[in-house]
Amino acid sequence: MPSRSRRDAVGSVLAKEEFATAISLGQHGTTFGGGPLACRVALEFFAIVEEEKLLENVNKVGEYLQQELKGLVEKRAAATGVRGRGFIQGFNSIFRRARSWTRR
Q1: Alpha-carbon distances, residue 56 vs 69, 70, 83, 88, 89 (angstroms)
Q2: Which helix (H) or strand (E) holds 39?
Q3: Claim: this prediction has a pTM higher than 0.70
């Protein structure tokens, strides 16, 4: 039996209806075209996300993270405007890039 060096993978795109209807099948790309193993793994992944309430936890911890970042920003003059959702958070830095960072 030949060894398998590749791994089955699955990708997905979640979008609001107005965006989803603007693209057609194949425009968003594909890895292995949703083979049976990859699809079964994806179904199990979503079951675990639901059972363990992972999204709920991300939202809860994300709110805490955002509040902590806002507290830091209020105390420091180097940043303003915290924003984000879940674990994806950001803030505006008031520092400009050093010239050595932008030159190549």
Answers
A1: 20, 21, 19, 15, 17
A2: helix 36-51
A3: no
pLDDT of residue 70 exceeding 70, the answer is: yes
Count CA atoms closer than 13 A to 9's CA, side-chain side.
Answer: 9
User: Any idea where the domains of the chain sit in the sequence?
Assistant: 1-52, 54-102
Closest CA to 69 of 80, 58, 77: 80
φ, ψ for residue 89 (rounded to 5)? -125, 155
- Distance, in Å, from the CA atom of 25 to the CA atom of 13, rounded to the nearest integer, reads 11
- When pLDDT is averaged across residues 60-77 and rounded to a whole number, the result is 91
Residue linked to tokens 């292995």: 32
Which pair of tokens denotes residue 95? Answer: 């520092």
Contact 83, 91 (CB under 8 A): yes
